[in-house]
Design a protein that fits this description.
Layout: H1 2-15, E1 19-22, E2 27-29, H2 30-34, E3 40-45, H3 50-66, E4 71-76, H4 86-92, E5 98-101, H5 106-110, E6 118-123, E7 126-132, H6 138-147
Parallel strand pairs: 3-4, 4-5
Antiparallel strand pairs: 1-2, 1-5, 3-6, 6-7
Helix pairs in contact: 3-6
Amino acid sequence: MITFVLVLSILSVQAQNIMIEDAQGKKESFAEVIKGDKPVVVIFWATWCKPCLTELDAYKEIHPEWKDEVRIVAIAIDDARTRSKVVPMAKGKKYPFEIYLDINNALSKNLNVRSVPFVMIYYKGKNVYMHSGYNPGDEFYVIDEALQYVD
């Protein structure tokens, strides 16, 4: 178990140098995206993933309650065929959180994200939680986990 945690820690540090693209096309390192004193919930998703869209809609519903304590970053893993749908879909659904694209899936591969939806929580640049899949109500559990790191 210790070896597994160590490997994930090393992957997480390496991932921080990977560039991702925001909704306006600006590239930023993952480290820049997750920095700050607030916990950051990172959701890996895709436009073609129904559970992902259900999950993002659920986070949108509860967002007003905790938006001052926790940030949400939604990172799409769509490939070249569907990437052009990411920003219009996010705007159309009026997602109130930051939207990014994982260029060539470099970040998700480095973090060993094998399927979506996949959620991670970062606090002060360190991964403190991860969860694969989505069941209704998971969003409350994830936010409760993130709120543990709020001062």
